[in-house]
Amino acid sequence: MHGPKPRSHAIKLQKMVRHLGLKVALSAQTAEGKLLVFEDLEVPSHKTKNIVNYISQMEDKKRCC
Question: Which of 13, 43, 60, 61 would suit a FRET pair with 36, their CA atoms being 20 to 30 Å apart?
Answer without folding.
Answer: 13
